[in-house]
Amino acid sequence: MPLNGIDNMNKISKYTLQSIIIAIAIAGCIYGGRVEYTDDVLSGMSLEKYQYIHDRIAPASQYDVAQEYMRNKKFYDSKTY
């Protein structure tokens, strides 16, 4: 017959571990979605356009460039590079 305190600790440890694993899985999905979004936006952009935006908002990550482009798409699409 298990001791009540030890049994409760095992349940708490089990639920804590499950919560951590779920949190890691959710974070991985969010990160994966962000990477996919960034890749999709940048794949339709010329290198010159990317470089122009990057230099304009530097220092910037690829995600920052993608967001800036999407916020001001009409402006960047109207420019000649």
Topology as H/E string?
HHHH
Q: Approximately what portion of the residues adopt beta-strand conformation? A: under 5%
Characterize the overall form. Answer: rod-shaped
Count of DSSP H/I helices: 4
CA radius of gyration is 23 Å
Distance N terminus to C terminus?
77 Å
The poorly predicted ranges are none
Largest sheet: none
Structure classification = mainly alpha
Mean pLDDT: 91
Estimate percent helicity. Answer: over 70%
The total strand number stands at 0
What does this protein structure show overall?
It is a single chain. By secondary structure, the chain is mainly alpha-helical. Helix content is 83%, strand content 0%. The chain contains four helices and no strands. It is rod-shaped and about 75 Å long.
Short structural description:
This protein has 81 residues and is mainly alpha-helical.
Features:
single chain; 81 residues; mainly alpha; 83% helix; rod-shaped
Task: Show the helix and strand layout.
Elements: H1 4-43, H2 47-57, H3 62-71, H4 73-78
